[in-house]
User: Fold these one by one.
Assistant:
Number 1:
Amino acid sequence: MTAVGGVAGRLPATPQAESIGKPPLPKRAAAFFRNNEEHAWRWSARVAVVLPLAALVFAVTVLALKAWPAIRVNGWYFLYGRNWTEGSGYGAVVHTDGVAHPMGSQYGALAILWGTLASSLIAIVIALPLSIGAAFALTERLPGWISRPLGLAIEILAGIPSVVIGLWGILTFGPWLAHNVYPIIADHAPNVPVLRYFRNPVGGGEGLLSAGIVLSLMIVPIITSTTRDLFLQVPPLPKEGASALGMTDWEVANKVTLPWVRSGIIGATVLGLGRALGETIAIVMIGGAALRIPINIYQPFTTVAATILTQLDGAFTDGTGFAVATLAELALVLAVISVGVNLAARVIITRTNRIGAPVGGA
Amino acid sequence: MTTTLAAGPSTRRRRISTITWRVLTYVALALIMAPAAWLLISVLAHAVPHWQWNVLWTTLTPSGGGLRDQILGTLILMLGVFIVAGSIGVLAGIHLAELARPRKRSGKASGGPLRTASDILAGFPSIVLGYVGYTALVVGLHWGFSLLPAVIILSIMVIPYIAKTTETALRQVPTGYREGAEALGMSMGYGLRKVVLKSALPGIVTGLLLALAIACGETAPLIYTAGFSPTLPHSLTHAQFPYLTYVVFQYYNAPETQYHYLAFDAALILVVIVLLLLVASRIIVSRTQRHSESARGTLRQRRPRPAGPPEPDLTLPRR
């Protein structure tokens, strides 16, 4: 074999020597990449995994800084007060504790906080039994060729944008409820505590109960799919053993399956609760955006999330910036509630898991 | 008359309770399915009678027009989220599943506070994130209502979700694959890229698609970060940005009827986009299931399942 490029009398340069001496740039780059690939993976992944924590800290810090003037001026009244007024935009600017705000501005968010908790509670009360029942039907009773497409339908429901659900709620579902369902409930509700809130007038479908029902439809997929997965993880032997002992379907469900997955269902429910607390657009569309505690369950109301959205335009008109700071305080309260709910879910799950003798339904 | 002991519930009360239970489970299922079906039918019924195909390629005008730039805007937002949240979320998932050292005592994968932070962020109200984006990015950095803050805030929303699905997908890769890669002398990075990530790719892509479905249906944080404009701008910042959900939210009760039709059309287009994403993820899942079933005979080491009741997945899709 002749040496390529070699001059007679001289040894041809061996490829190895050449590559050791001066490799071409792409090769060097490839080698560099090969030698450092592990570091690249490790460091980029490290940076990426810290980002959620950084974003969380950043978000809470920004909110706290922004809300601080409002927290100082509004004080505890923010949590128990019922009066929510921006004050006069043309009047004098008042200074309280060195914070400028329009004269007559007073922010008490009791009705807003009440609406948030009430609508989420209604949603949970409706969604939880429906979800557990549906998950049972899907896993224990129906054959695969029915339950699989139905499970897919629930997944689709989870993916429908909330603004589309809100559109359906305000144009179709809310009016239908107000014409066909609410009058029946309202006419038969007795004048006793709690049930008194179900009495007339029923309104036009924009209000607390409509929003609660639509919210429940939005959290049902979360609870149902989680519960279904949990049911599928229950080992078959305890269930079969219970059946062999002569237990009925209900008894197997009540004494074996449900106790086994109890903590998981609680976790999923609290997760759904967090979702309901933070839902914005659907509540803005269906809730009616009334800044007061409704006289009955059919009346317009508002939530923290909905208020942050609907009041923004108005807040810009406050030249002192105090209205915007108050919205930051609302956002901070909502953030604290949602973080608290999430942490509570975690504690509940680890607690019940530790105590849990899962089988036996004591 | 002979009675068989094993025939079923022996007392009246038990029989009634069982029948009631069965009926109630079906009723619950029906009460979920009926509104869901009604919702989809209602979206169709509102949009189809006035549907005109030119909605897809004409721009929004004061007298009506189409939604071309809003559709493109939503797709651009999704692309931005795919790039930003996709890369960060997948890397975070890789860290949680592969790189973090396991804790000594519990033997569980580490990343405790980081994982908790990620889960809390997943349950964070989107409107609060939107407000933070408004305060810090739109006003604080003087970007104005525009594409960049919107993409950043949407990405922060879905990063925890992508990280979680990536981590789950990576954990389903059999340990034998990693050991095999190492035994063949692959470097850690090469093995991760060519063996582990490759076999987890379907799960990762599914998570990405579902995250995109969440992102495209979001409204509240976008109102605070992207603003809205009838046409596509030419810059990342200082120019309000169009997207579909705003059309649904603002136009359904506008005074002019043609705007109502636009809102219904936008709702239908959104539902179609979400359905396409879900169908795509389903196809990926079913394909890989078939694939993994054929590979069931191969070496497959499962991590031992922890004793006690199962823990739920605390990071789930949300809007």
Number 2:
Amino acid sequence: MTEQLLFRLRVRYVKQGRLRYLGHLEVLHTIERVVRRAGLPYAVTQGFSPHMRAGFSAALPVGTASSCEWFDVFLTELVPVTEALERLRAAAPADLAPQEAGYVDVRADALTAFITCAEYRVALFPRRDAAGEAAALDAPRLEAALAAVVARGQIPYQRGKKQKVLDLTRTLDAYTVRALADGAFALDLSTRMDNEGALRPEILLAALDAELHGAPDDPIVSTGIQNLSLFDHYDVTRTAQYAMSDDGAPVYPLHP
Amino acid sequence: MRCEYRDRFSELEPLLARVEKPSRYIDHEWGTASKPEAAYRACLIYPDVYEVGLPNQGIAILYAALNRAEGIACERSYVPWVDMADEMRAAGVPLLSLEGAAPVASFDVVGFHIPHEMAATNYLEALDLAGIPLLAADRGEDDPLVIGGGPSVYNPEPLAPLFDAFLIGEGEESLVEVCREHERLRDAGATRAEILAGLARVPGTYVPALYEVSHEGACTRHGYTVPRAGANVPEVVYKRVVRDFGATDPVSQSIVPFTELVHDRLSIEVLRGCARGCRFCQAGITYRPVRERTPDQIVAAVSRGLAHTGYDEVSLTSLSTTDHSCCSQILSRLNRGLEGTGVSVSIPSQRLDAFGVDMALEVAGEKKGGLTFAPEAGSQRLRDIINKNVTEDDLERACRAAFEAGWRRVKLYFMMGLPGERDEDIVAIAELAERVLSIAREVVPKGQRGGIQVSVSVSVFIPKAHTPFQWCAQLDDAEVKRRQRLLIDSVHDRAIRVHCHDAETSLIEAVLSRGGRDLAPLILGAWRHGARFDAWSDQFSLARWEEAAAELGLDLRAIAEEEFPLDARLPWEHVSPGVSRGFLLREWRRALAGKTTDDCTRSSCTGCGICPTLGAENVLVGDRS
């Protein structure tokens, strides 16, 4: 059998609004259905149980939004990029809408191997007491607490029955804290991921919360979306995903 | 004042972080309908969690029918899982619809799907979360109308006090008529009582408040239901039936869920009804007559449905898909059309003969999972009693064909506690399974025999209303457990796996199938003791039902195990699928005599009375084999 000529379409899409509560598998299935509804000439794997040839960037936790999720789908015919994007957008729920697309080399690395850097923005909303007073928090205090957490290097936590460790020395590149309007705070994180794991912002938030309320040794249990003691709620958004070239320059997924 | 229709998702959202599967509650799926400006609003509720309710085809059909109607908006709701229900109560958030995230109590009509008896406590759970009075008699002018419909309305009495009205039979036409009439009466300023009286005039609508229970003359302990003095309502409410099924839209689903479901696929209803005449089967009576869609309509519907939904599997649904007169043609046309797309076709169950295996082979492709057959009883004598017209030869031929074609796993369905059942019939189940296993070992090449698996799944027979077995007693649960033990002990080969259905759940199912209006307090009591999601074996607790029964002085086992005299008026005879009492009696006598009865789609009319009573008839698009 001759090798079929394939085209690899790479697409950036968002995950936002209520749809940030979808799990990774739910997103995968939805995107596959979007591709089928769009009527794109997708390639199918050979063998026992044929399925669409597609690949996705690393899982986004339930509750986390993103402006930069990626998927690859292999096509059997070249569809002009603008047309493919238009058809995908028309077939997608608005909160998972594709934003841009382009063809990449069919032999390029899978998205999960290619992407090594992710940036997150976290918005933290301090809890208020019955009188509407927020706890005495300011950006310098948050920054100091975060520095203390980062200085320890590792955050042990429990997920299900497993004891795990988040290694900040390997996964956290940089962070900044600043105050937003209405007493909220923004936390920007530059992170790295590899086969050993990625930084789950919520674990860092749980450690920060424990540090701030003076109980840095309290065990952290990962519950997906965390209940924090000093913060009423928080929003996490993945804002960028890219690779790093050998000379330290970011490489955008559309130009691998 | 009616509770206000407005979006309250912001109150629900903080709870999403604390529950499993938040995607159950977020809406925004592909294909949902939104009609913010509608003058009349309906909310349809499936009485279980989202992923159980979403694939339901009945709700999908009604959702489409109502939203097609000018000025009517239809939204959905499901019962929040126990974690979310507890969070909602603690936070004071009422049950919301999905599409508009509006309180269910703000709708004009709330329609529950009634899938089976074990959903009984979940109607109460949903009404309570919604803040709607649990009993119809306690509802005021501002409360929504609470209606029910679906496969399990043919003995509505135990649920009667909870519902303002039941829609008996097929709802795609009658629900729209009921909503229109309600809207008209509402706009004319009618009172709740006037509205109920008006709805009772829409054919197929049973309004329990306009009927009462009588104990006069020959009847059971539950009495029978008759029109209240002065109420202008029919003595018998006959089911509605769609005469021209082929004229209805075969693509009923529009909503594509995010959550992965057990049946996560496009479903196309290829035919409705089954006339095989198994005497235990309620659906076999209540879905008659048999109506088939044409192959052209089915093939076109599959491609339209797939293009709209993006699913990678399509199921051809019905009570007995392989009975469709053009089954073979339909499957081969679909397979040709879907080649190379990765989309697969499935049929829900196999006919127990070589044709059934041929059809299974058509849809299986390279991937051969398990094949399921339902002999229902172990011995020929008992299969003749229940009118399951298959022989041991049929089963052997089907299994041989299946193993030869490459299947390695076969699942056999049986029932226990059938009328006339003896210990030898139970032992015969084990012998049949062992016979199937020995065929497998004979046919399957040596190196592959490790993959052989024969499993036996045994449910407990429940006597259902409007079947020839409606007078029968339920076998007591202790005896069920003894026979289950006997079966397990009779299976000698460890390659055969036996799964038995829980005898305690079956006891409650029998009580609710056979009882009357007098059992509504039992359902309320069980729910007050914490019963909900009784269809989930990990949630069901017989103790809650027993406590409730004790408080009411009811004996659950006595209710389930009482045989009804043939001349007694039964608690459910004021609603009817159109079958004649004479036919059911004749079938019962033939069962006792071990005489079988033909399938009227393959021979002549067997006189069930449904076609003449409902003014409908079987519609076949070819000759059945």
